[in-house]
Each structure stands twice: as structure tokens, then as C-alpha cells.
Amino acid sequence: MKQIKPVLLLLFIALFALAACGSPAEEPTAVPEPTEEPTEAPVEEPTEAPVEEPTAEPEEEATAVPEPTAEPTEEPTPELRTENLEGETIIFYHFGDLSGPYAAITSPLIHGMEDAVAELNANGGIRGATVEIQFADDGGSVDEAVAIYDRFTSEDDNPLIMFTYGSGEAEALTSRFAEDEIPSLTSGLSAVAFYGEGSGYTFGLGSIYPDQFGAFLDYAVANWDEIKPDSAGDEIKLAYLSWSGAFGQGALTDETRAYAEELGVEIVIEELYDLAPTADTTTALLNAQAAGANVIWTNTLAFGPAALMNGIGALGLQGEFVLAGDNWAMDLATYAFVSDPALTVGMYAPLSYLWWNDVDHPGVQQAEAMFAANERSMTEHGVGYLVLAAAVDVAAQAIENAIDEVGFDALTGVDVQYALTNMGPYEGLQGVLSLDFSDGSRSPHSGQIRQIQGGPDAFNVVQDFTDTPDLRPAK
Amino acid sequence: MIFPLTPTLLSSFSPLALSSSSLPMLKINNIEVIYSDVILVLRGISLSVEQGQVVSLLGANGAGKSTTLKAISGLLLREDGAVTRGNIEFDGQRLDRMAPEEVTRLGIVQVLEGRRLFQHLTTEENLLTGALIRSDRAGIKQSLEQVYEYFPALPALRNKTAGYLSGGEQQMVAIGRALMAKPRLMLLDEPSLGLAPLLVRDIFDIIHRINKESGVSIMVVEQNANVALRAADYAYVMENGRIVLDGTAAQLADNADIKEFYLGLTAVGERKSYRNVKHYKRRKRWLG
Amino acid sequence: MNWQLLPQFAITGFLNGGPIALIALGIVLIFKSSEIFNFSQGQMLLIGTLSTWWFWAEEGLGLPLWAAIILGLTVSAILGLLIERLTLRPMTGQPLLSIILMTLALSQFLQGMAILTFGTTQRNFPAIFEVTSPYKISLPFFTYNNNPMMLILKQNLVWSFGVAMLCVILLWAFFQYTRTGLSMRATAEDHETAQSVGIRINHIFGISWALAGIIGTVGGILIATASGLDLSLPIVVLAAFPAVLLGGLESIPGAVIGSLLIGLTQGLVALPNNDFILGAEAAQVIRSSSEIIPYIILLIVLVIRPDGLFGQKRIERI
Amino acid sequence: MAIMRPSGDFDRSYKQDMTVIRQRWQYILLIMTLLALYTLPMYASEATVSLINRIGIAIIAVQGLNILTGYTGQISLGQAAFMTVGGYTSTLLMTRMGLNFFAALPIAALTAGLIGLLFGLPSLRVKGFYLVMATLSAQFIIPWVTRTLWQDTLNGAQGLIVPVPVINLPVIANQCFLSTTFNAETAQCAYRFATPSQFIYITLTVLIFTTIITHNISRSRLGRAFISVRDNDLAAELLGINPFAYKLRAFFLASVYAGIAGALLASNLRHINSATVGLNDSVLLLGMLIVGGLGTSVGPIFGAALVTLLEEIAVVLTPLVITVAPDLAGGATAALRPLIFGLALMLFLIFEPRGMAYRWNLIKAGWRLRPFAK
User: Per the CB < 8 Å rule, is A307 touching C227?
Assistant: First the structure.
């Protein structure tokens, strides 16, 4: 067809234009090689930071081969601005799901962050700089999360930190965070986001789900005689009843399967149920019973564990199973969906942070005061509020450390990432959330086992902080 | 508006006193009908129906008879047609642009071409749908008995699904359903269509009887001029969207052209062959 | 196979079909009268159920439950009327695609309205039926390993089914014995003829939408009492769509039986266990297919018998 | 649709009649537009580029739907499902077989086309509303398959991480040219389409191809056969057109487009799972088609652009709504998007069911007939 030819010609002209003048963005030469030890990455990165400076001419026609060796080109800034940053602004970017499946836990997360940031600003912000929050709703969709990410990074060519919590979003964005050198704190704890290919800038606000699962298995094996249901034998037979999806299946990896086998725990059945409050768990529970299961693990939250509890209650199966779940499963949001609060009693979960009923703890007291001062509704008195309040503290501390290192004006995400990995064991919000990323991992490796012993304020410790097994993915 | 139920009417189909000085109850004044804003179907139709009369509307296929009926009953609106000129009056009330269900509620009930029963409803339910615009329980029951009396074949079929009735039975139910509304004017669209000649005769006998006994005015659209003229008081002949001839049934039955054209008879009363009729048609146009 | 669970899962699934039947009925009602397939049924019942919650809850009006339910049903009836009048009546005579898209657009719009009005927080719906202590029935004649087979039935499930079937019977009586019911059945058959006997079909369309809103909301309330109330409630209609087609688009008994069959099948696919003949993995795949099994049935129905089990074949006779 | 042309523009042969671009100024306009688009990353912000990028991908999917729904009259609620097929296929080809993105793209499109053909088979037996339900079932069955079957390969519900498309160029004189960087592993210079302003070149180029193809389909025998099937399949059959064969062709083509769009989307997001695109997206795509104008070649472009922009407006409006009614802080963000889309679609259906393309033609005609037209 003759009339196509000119168009094709044009196309090639355009392709040429693409090559010649396109791509003002820097090439991600600074990305740590995936094979590299994560700990090494930050060491060489700050040295390359100046390449990123907006002053650098991005229009490079050619790059020398091989890759420019990482020379210590860091120009020592004459006077570092590390104090009195009044008038400056630091933005915390926050992705969340207000309209999708995780909407049930979202508002406490947002409010926890808002209140903590308000308090931080009232106490002088970060060295005087005001912290602002930019929140965007992604509806739980990766598509939307990427669009939001593009918007955020376009409005700000030097974002310092981002917060996410959907497992799917965290996984999808993780390579972008690393390429664009933006550290992120996430509470969606599926392992791929932290240790998968191209990761390095994603840090967890809790142990990854495989570690949590392993920690619970450790506890169950050690204490089986005490915790086992009356009808159960000596063997732990586990049913994995959960949602489909990155979060729901997050605890069931090759590593955890192998670990369970090692401990002599048999996973007798895996069942899925709907990611909806209307999910019916009757068949899942009866199948678990028929398969001889005596322990149930669920990697769900809010209405997820509630659906199991309701099912157990409605079918009269109380006392047949030990019910356990991830840290999100043990939350107030569950109470909104459970038909009888008594059904929650007995559930176990490994938590790597404190809970509201640790009233003697100064950090919890601080959170409680904040909660009361902002007149938050008691329905938000849950994990989201507490963890995000502590996370703000962690982020602020990391940024302060980074400012000390390079000064405010030269501050980039690379420096914040470096600060996060090097801040050693850190007690967020006076110890509500203890993190330590210095050992090469990007998620904490310790936790308590807690059990619901009657009411939302009785998430009691049955085993104090111990190290969790390290079940991060091999690759 | 619901037709006011006077005590005389409540006594169901009792013969109304027919006043000879009858004013036309339905008057069509010079209407023009256009479909889909472009297709001119009727031009300058005028006709009237008087109280208690049976009026026939004759004409070949596509002459515009059914359209005229639909213009009265309002069903034209459903087919993207509109009365663009002239008006239709029923007891002084304008009907053009009135929704079909409202026309029915004024007392004009149309028996649609091809019976059109509610096929999955039973015979009796079909009849009862005719009375949905009435609210007098006793009167409805009485009307139902009256219908069964007119059509003695129907009581046995009362619980049978209407779709499975024979064509003649369906026609009876359709007329019965119209009667259930206790209409003042009944519009019948080709009641003879697809029925055996004997059945056609029966149907027209009953139409005649209904008219005489209950005083309902009736307007029948027919291709079969033979039977139509027998039952009618007055008749109009349509061709190409116009009225070309009108007169009392007797006058028209005597008209030579009618005999030749519709009744298919020669002057001496012999049947003509199809070829001759065709030839005649080409030669002679009503509006030459 | 878990043969000992066969009666259990069959009956549970069957009873689960009860509330679905109500939702399916709403869809059939509208389709019968106006040939519009209402993709926004789920959002209609969401708003109805949320209103019921609001009338009952302390944050709302704090009315007694029965009053809240009556008011909630009224809201859904009014919503149905409004939808018909404002969005679908202007569409009369438009092609199928436009009408399908209109109800899809409505579903989006209503979802947005529901979020805007009620927010995103989850709600605890009052439990109408006893939550714990299920009915335990030991089956006569059936034994497994010489033990009598036991049926464990959630009270909620049994009563929801009962209420749903009561609604179905009421609806049937309404159609059979009332004048409005007769008008609706007549309108469903043939709009033109219905108009010619004086039925105001626009009113009938309005009534069908209102009725669909009401019975859908009853279904929504039944589901919400069992498992809480959340913005994701509308997804229950995804099981009702295939049920409607299985039963036959225009058939009221079809919608009920279709829903029960869909429920039954969803129950039965949960049966295969680790000693399933094709292996444990295949068993797991089959178990996880309960969400799509309605759509597989749908495809089969479409290929074998598009009119559904009870669909009306037009009676053709002259 | 009446063809309105500037005065003096006549056809003297069939070839002229088939010409797409008839005048020099149209050439100039086309070249300017393309240049403006290709140089977009130089002057537009990353967010704008990202937006255009998303619009471009949506246009491709809607163009496919337009062939099926607009030209052939078969309504489909499954377009997003076939995007999923395309996305997964290209990802697997890249990660498992080591294919380059540009080699994987056509294979992914073809695979999606074949799967689409499969779900088009019920069109042999049913039409209208029943067909809608058949395509709806694709929307449930395909995502279920991707998260349940072949878990070792497809990684279940978690889905797959998708590699960034790369072009490898040889090293010349120990230098990498054209903004590429050296990749030690392959010993070649690599251009990575990572950021929106890099990825947009892929989207634009593919979009130009699909636009040319769609436009040529619509004016060929194939397109006319599609239209005849839509308008009256019985009459089409009498004209010697086998309606079933053409319906299946339309299903195939629509799914090929969906496959392309899906592969692009997956690479753009760098992640795909069964929930990446879903029923809502199928509805969104149909909505775009209606808003833009069914059965026109500019319709998908207008529709995808307007609907995507409306979504952006929802994002912009949110803070405003929150200031007006702070109680809605939680709800507003979530509510506005479906609300605005639903409302816009409803208004179009009631007041301009022929879509923006029709308006556009009126404006064009008005412009050409100036000063005679009002």
C-alpha cells in the first residue's frame, strides 16, 4: 500500500529522533548488580551521587566503555547544612488502598502517619524542616500504583522516601525503587519485594511472611503439648487456608515448605477462599478437618481471619484447631467482621512490634496519647496506626542521620538508604518497632508470639522476642 | 383518564339507548402520518364513527388501513410514526400524541392484527388483562361471564396456555379480551386474517351481535370486503394512504367498482379470473 | 474423594444458593419486563444494605432492626424507581450495546455514590440468627465407615435459605394472584399488546426496578448478617449472572433453580482431597475452581442450550 | 457519514478515492504531530509522558475492541482478559526463552489472538446479550487459569516480575552511542526502556502501526464485511459473506490488539498477575469506545484520551472534595473515579451516543464549509 510508505519513513525518522535526543534520564548504572551482596551496594553508591545532580549535563551522546570506574568523585561540600532547616520541606510519599480489597485497614494507617508527622513537626520537624505527607489511593491495583509512582517521581526529582503496604504494589515497584534510588518502607511483607531480583531499596516494617510462618512453626513445635487441641495427636498437621494473591500466598514459599518438613510439620491441605467479607469458609474448614489438620495458618487480614473464625463458630468446630496468622491477621479490623468476639480468642500471631496493651511501655504510651489527642475512633486502635506512627519515627531518624552525613542540600535517596542500612539496631517510637537493617537483611528477624486472650486489648505475649528463622528466598 | 362508569354501563353490555341524532364519537380530521420523519404514509384522511355504529375500513395491502387504526390507538408512537397534520378527536378529546395505554383508558380498545395474545398466560388470564383498567370486581366477573356466553368454546379452555390455542380460538380470546375493558369503541385489525372462511363468518356474526347487544361502536379494518360489508353500517375505502370512497355498506356493496375490485365479481355476478383483475387494476385507478 | 462430606457439601452448597436466588430473581424481573440485563444489581443491593445498616447503627439513626430493614427496603425501592426513570427510560429504543453499557456505567456510578455516602470503613451488620451452635443432623440410611453421617448446618445458612424461599413464594403469589402481578406478566410478554389493553408499561418498568431493588436488598441483608458488610458486597452478583442464564433469562423458577444448582456445584467441587484419583494437585485445582465453575457451566449452557433450563421458547403457532 | 471535503478536492480514480492523506497540509500536520509526540520527553514532565503512555496502551486495546464491537457489532466484556494473556505470554517468552521484547511482542499478540478466537466460538451459536456473557466468562476463567494452573511457571496469584524491554546494539570503536550503556554480561550496548520517557517510544511506534492497520482494515473488503455482519448478518450471508467466519476473524483481531496492549502494559508495569487487568478494565475499555465513537478510526483515540484524563481529573479533584467535606477524606479518593467515569458514560449514552468522533466530524465539516455552515 503506497500511502503507508511515507508514514514508515517518518517512523524511522522518529526512531532516529528517539535515539538522538531521547532519554534525558540517567542510565541506572548505579544499580547494584543483583548478584552483589546487598550490604555492599550502599558503599559505592554515594560516590556516584553527584552524577545525579541536576547540574550534570544529561545529554551525553556517548558513554565510555567499560563502565566508568567508581572513582571517589564526591566533592566535599564546603559547609554542610545539617541544622536549622526551617523553611525547608521533606515529603513522605505514601501509596495505599482506599478503594480496593485492603480498604478495611487503610484509614488507621493514614491516620497513624498523619498524627505522627504532626507531632514530629510540632517538635521541630526534621532538624527544622517541615515534613509533608503526599498520599495517593491506588485502589490496590499495581497499574494505578505505577501511575502514582510516575506522578510522584515527576513532581519531585529527588524523593527521599516512600511508604507502601500492598504486597502486590511493593513487589511491582521494588525494581523501580532500586533503579531510581528511592528507599521505601513497606508493611506488605511478602519476600519478593525485599529480596527478589533488582531489590535493594525496599525495607520492611516487620518480618517477612515466610519468617513469621517459620517463627510460629518453631513456637508450635516447641510448645505443642501445651497448645494442642484436645483431639489432636502428637503430629502437627497444618492447613494453609488463605486468600489467593501475593499477600495471601506470601508465607508459602519453597523455603517455608522445606522448613516445615525439617520441623516435622506436615502441610496436609492448602485451600483458598474469597478475598471478600462474604467469603464462605465452610468447605475449606471441613476439608481441613477431614484431612486431619489440627493447626490452621492464614495469611490474611481483617475479614480474612474473621471468615475463618465465623466459620469455626458457625460449624461448631471450636477447639478443633489452633488458629494462627500473620501479623496483620491479629488486628482490631478483624473484630469488625467477626460475628462473636469470643471466636477470636486463642488465635496466635508473630508480631515484630509491641501492642496497645503494653501500657507500661513509654512508646505505646506516646502512641496512646497521640491517638487520644487527635480523637481517633476506637475502630482505628489497631496495628496500622501503631506501626505507621513508629515508621515515621524510623524514617525521620534515618533522614537525620543522612543529613549529618552529607548535609541537607546534597541529600538524596541514596544517602537515606545508606543511613537506613547503617543505623544499626534502632528502636522506632522508643521501641514499639525495633529494626536492624545492618546485618544485610532488609526486614527484621525477631518477633514475639502473641495470643488473643479475650478482647482486642488482650493480645498477650506467650513468647517474648526471639530470633525468627531466616527464610528469605534463595535467589 | 378512566371512562366514567355510569350505572347503565355497570349493568354490563346492556343495550344502550341509541340516539338517532348521534354526534360522531370519533372524528378524524384530515390527518397526515409520517414514519421516521421521512415516510409519508397517510395524507388527508378524514373519517368519523358514530355512537353504536360498525364502520369498515377497506383497502388492499399497504393502503394505510392499519396505520389509520394505530393513529387512533396511539400505537403509532411505538413505531416511530407521528400524526403531523390534522387531529383525531374522541368525545372532543385530542387523541393524537396520546400514549396507547391512555387511549385505551378512554374506552377505545384495539384488537391487534394477528391476535397478539399473551402467549404464556392462560385463556382466562388473557381475558382478565383486558379488565386491568377497571377496578369493579363484580363488574369484571360479570363481563367475564358475558364473554364466555358470547364465545361458548372458551370456558373449556380457560386454563389452557393461550399460545397453544387454535387461530380461531385465539381470535375469540382477543375479541373477548377487548370486551373485558368494557370499551365504547372497539378497533379490530383484520380479524379474518389466517382464519378459515366458516370461522370468519362466525367471528363477524359475533361482532355484529356484540354491537347490537352492548352498543359498542366498532371499527373494522378488512381486506375481505365481502364479510366486512355484511356486518358494517358504513364503510370507507382506502388506497395509497387516502380515502377514495365512502358510503353506507349497502351503497358500497352496490358500487360497480367495489364489486369488480374487492368482491371480484363482474357486473353479472360471475367470478373473474386473477389475470383479468390484474389487468383491470392496471387500467383503472381510483384516483386516475 | 471425601465421600463422607458429599451430603454435607451438597446441602451446604444448595442452601448457599438461597440468597443468590433472590439476587438472580431481581435480575430476571427487570429482564422480563423490560429486556434490560441489569449489571448494576450488585450496587443496588449494596446501597440498600448500607442504608439498612445506617438506619440501624448507632452512628446512624439507631432504629430497631425491623424498622431499619423496612426503611432500607424502601430506599432500595426508591432507588430502583429513580434509576429506571432517569437513566433507562431515555434509552428506550437504543441498541443493546448502549443499554448494556448504561447498566455497567450505573454500576460504576452507584459504587462511587456508595463510597462517597458511606465511606470505606467496614461494618458489622447485626446478627439476626444465632451465630454459634449449628444444627447437627445425623443422616438416616447413610453411613461412612459404619458411622452415621453427620450434617453440620450453620443456623444462618438454614434460615437465610428459608427467608429466601419465603420471598420466592411471596413473589410467585404476587405474580399469580394480584392485578399488578398480572400486568407485569402481560408486559413481560409483549409491550405493544400490553399497552393496547391499557397497561401503563412505564409504571410496570418502574415497579420491576423497585421490586428488583427490594428483593436484591433482602439477599444483601441475608449475606451481610452472615459475614459483615463491606464495599465488596456487590461481587455476590457474579454468581447470580450465570445462575440467571442457566435457569433461562426470563424464567422466575429458572432463576431459583439455576441459583440452587450453581450453589450445589460450587459445593461439590470442594470434594476432591489429597487421595483424589488424579492426584493431590489436581484435587487442589478443582477445589479452587468454585469461583469459576458458574462460568464454566455458563459456557456449557450457551453452547448446548442457550435458552437455559427453563427459558421460554417462543410458542410458535398460527 | 457524509464525507465533507474542502472544495476542489475531487477523486478521479479509485486509487484517489482510497487515499488517506489527500493534501499537502495534511502531511505537514501529520509530521508535526508525530514529531511533537516523539519529542515529548524533551519538554513534557515525566508525569505527562507517563499519562500519554497509558493513554497509548489503552488506545491499542480499544482499537481492537473497536474492530469487534464497533465494526462487527459483537459486544465483548473480555478484552482485559486477553490483555492478561498477552502480558503473560510476552513475559514468559522473555524470562523463560530469553527472547527480546520486540520478538516476544508479535508472538504474544498471536497467542492472545488464538485464545480470543476460542472464546469467540460461542458466537457461532449465540449473539447479542448471550455473547456478552460468554466473553464475561473469559474475564473470569483466564485470570483463574493464570493464578491456579502451572504454578511453577506462572507463579500463581503472585504473578511474575516482567523484565524491562532492552535493545542491544554492538559496541563501535569501544564506545556506546545513542544514549545506551554498556552491558558487561552481553558485551553489548543496551538501551533500556525503563522510565516512561523511554518506554513511550515503544508505545508510540506500536500505536502508529496499529493505527495504520486498523484504518486499512476499516476501508478494505474485510472491514466492509465486518460492517455488513454488524448491520444485518442475514443479509450479509445472502451477499456471500459467511458471518461466522468474519465474526471469528473479528474476535481474533480484537484479541491480537489486546495481546499487544497487554504485553506493553506488563512491560510498562514490570509486573503482571491475574489481577493486573480485570473486569473493571474491560468495562473501562468499552466505555472508552462509546465515549470516543463506535466504528470510527478516531473514536478509540478520543475515547481513551478523554476517559484517562477524566480519571486524572478525579485525582486532581480529590483534595478539593476533602477540603469541602473533610469527613470524606477516606471515601473521596476512592469514590470520585468510578463516579466520574460512570457519570460521563451515562451522559454520553443519553446525549451523544455517537461519541466524540461524531462531534469531531461536525466540527471538521463546519470548518471546511466555512463560511457557509453555521
Answer: yes
Cell readout for D45 is 514532565
A27 contacts D50? CB cut-off 8 A: no
Contact status, residue A211 vs residue A251, Cβ threshold 8 Å: no
Domain boundaries, position D226: 44-368
Whether the complex's predicted ipTM surpasses the cut of 0.90:
no
Sign for the pseudo-dihedral over CA of B173, B179, B181, B187: positive
**D140·C292 Cβ contact <8 A:** yes
How far is the first Cα of chain C from the last one, in angstroms, to the nearest whole number?
A: 54
Domain holding C19, by residue range, is 3-93+100-145+154-304
Give the domain B7-18+31-242 fold.
Rossmann fold (3.40.50)
C132: in domain:
yes
Q: How many domains does chain D have?
A: 1
Residue B113: CB atoms within 10 A of its CB come to 16
* Phi and psi angles of residue B219, each rounded to the nearest 5 degrees, phi first: -120, 120
Residue by residue, DSSP assigns B201-248 as HHHHHHHHHHHHHH--EEEEEES-HHHHHHH-SEEEEEETTEEEEEEE
Instruction: Write the residue in A103, A291, A314 that is nearest to C120 by C-beta.
Output: A103
Residue of A nearest to D335 (CA): A99
Answer yes or no: is D256 within a domain. yes
- Please report residues of A whose CB lies closer than 8 A to that of C232: 101, 275-278
Number of domains forming the structure of chain C: 1
Grid cell locating A183: 528507599
| CA–CA distance, A410 with A430 (Å, rounded to integer) | 29
Please list every residue in chain C whose beta carbon sits closer than 8 Å to the beta carbon of residue D73: 97
Please give the C-alpha separations between residue D250 and each of A152, D224, D246, D303, in angstroms, as whole numbers: 40, 12, 6, 20
DSSP B122: B
Q: Of all helices (H) and strands (E), which one includes residue D173? A: none
B39-B40-B42 Cα angle (round to 5) = 140
A-facing residues of D in 287-316 (CB < 8 A) are 315
At residue C282, the pLDDT reads 84
CATH number of D231's domain = 1.10.3470
> Residue C113's domain is classified under what CATH number?
1.10.3470
pLDDT in tens, C51-82: 999 999 888 888 999 999 999 999 999 999 99
CA distance D338 to chain C (A): 5
Minimal-distance CA residue of chain B relative to C201:
B101
Chain B residues contacting C, CB < 8 Å?
A: 73-75, 78, 80, 99-101, 104-105, 109-110, 112, 116-121, 125, 128-130, 132-133, 161, 163-164, 167, 177-178, 181, 194
Do D328 and C87 count as a contact with CB atoms less than 8 A apart? no
Q: Is there a domain that residue C313 lies in?
A: no
Of C8, C52, C12, whose CA–CA distance to C220 is shortest? C52
CB-count exposure of residue A4 (10 Å: 0-12, 13-18, 19+): middle
Render pLDDT for A192-211 as a digit per residue (tens, 0 to 9): 888 887 888 999 999 999 99
- Please check whether residue A191 is in contact with residue A246, taking contact to mean a CB–CB distance below 8 angstroms: no
Q: Sign of torsion, CA C207 C210 C216 C219? A: negative
- Average pLDDT of chain C is 86
Using an 8 Å CB-CB cutoff, list residues of chain C that contact chain A. 2, 4-5, 8-9, 12, 16, 115, 120-124, 127, 131-134, 136, 152, 154-157, 223, 226-233, 235-236, 267, 270, 273-274, 284, 287-288, 290-291
Structure confidence by residue, pLDDT tens digits, A371-424: 999 988 888 888 889 999 999 999 999 999 999 989 898 899 999 999 999 988
Chain C touched by D25 (CB under 8 Å): no
Residue D166, SS3? strand
Residue extent(s) of CATH 3.40.50.300 domains in chain B: 7-18+31-242
